[in-house]
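An example makes the point: we let one protein speak, the chain in one-letter code, the fold tokenised, and here it is:
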Amino acid sequence: MLINALQAQEHGADILTRTEVVDVYSDGYGWHVMVRDHIENTDQKLRCKVLVNAAGPWVSQLHAKLMGDEASYKLRLVKGSHIVLPKLHDQDNAFLLQHHDGRVIFVIPYLGKYSLVGTTEEEYEGDLDKPTISDAERDYLIAIVNLYFKNSVSRSDVVGSYSGIRPLIESEGTAATKVSRDYKLHLDKKPSPQLSVYGGKVTTYRVLAEQVMNQLGPFFPRTRGSWTKRATLPGGDFELSENLFQDLASQYSWLRPDIIKRWQRSYGTLAFKILKNTRSMGDMGVCFGANLYQREVDYLCEHEWAHTAEDILWRRTKLGYQFSDREVESLSNYLSQSRDAA
């Protein structure tokens, strides 16, 4: 999602993070949107011709607020969870496990030191802001790992976990595992144009977005039509990862290979942007832990909207698995001081 936001920004979009829509109304000629910046604690009013409601599991709630009626499609909310374990094998391959209950579980090499195992499917009615793995989900994934791998694991081996909510289009009487992962688009033209996205998943996001823009084309006659199918995302303008590694190692021979490998995976050719005007490790600044240097932190704050240690350690680099409490505190203090000095 973040890399798509970077691409949108390159094409003129304004990206407002930590900004909440607090009020919306139409005057018949367009939308007035009141938004609240939770960093600056300020409100501002925006105007737009068209609204796109792509709020995921919140789409029905937002539709009701915007249009004053029930959503066009009923959603079934299904939670999917993953667990992170110490590396289960020495291979670089991902494994696809066909379980006897008909579900498919992935075991994927993760961050060099771990294996990512998932995902589950569990009906969900809890807090949409804070989905967490249940004991049943954790035990289910552990049992599958123990069934297929030689080395047994237990709850105490789980390094971390995360969960998300799938907003699936309801199909009465159908089990969660059988509910379609397809999506539906619904366009309301009155009082002002508003398009709602129901369902969908990350693997179809580009086609979904293309279809959204095709439906909105008549409202924006100057648009040039679809172009994302063959577009390269920021940082992705290279053919082989091995060649990118060699290019970085050649130009910055002083940079540690493990840092190059992580940056190659995380940033692609944007790594050259981070390293601009650096000539030695001394130019990288303070090391906060796990080879996270001040140079990378500053880049993430300036170009990728990072604001807190949690943003950097979990939402960007995933280095939180390797950081001690003391190192987290040091990073947090630096970010706080940088904001005060800005």
Summary: The chain has ten helices and 14 strands. The two ends are 27 Å apart (CA to CA). The domain at 75-169 is CATH 3.30.9.10 (D-Amino Acid Oxidase; Chain A, domain 2).
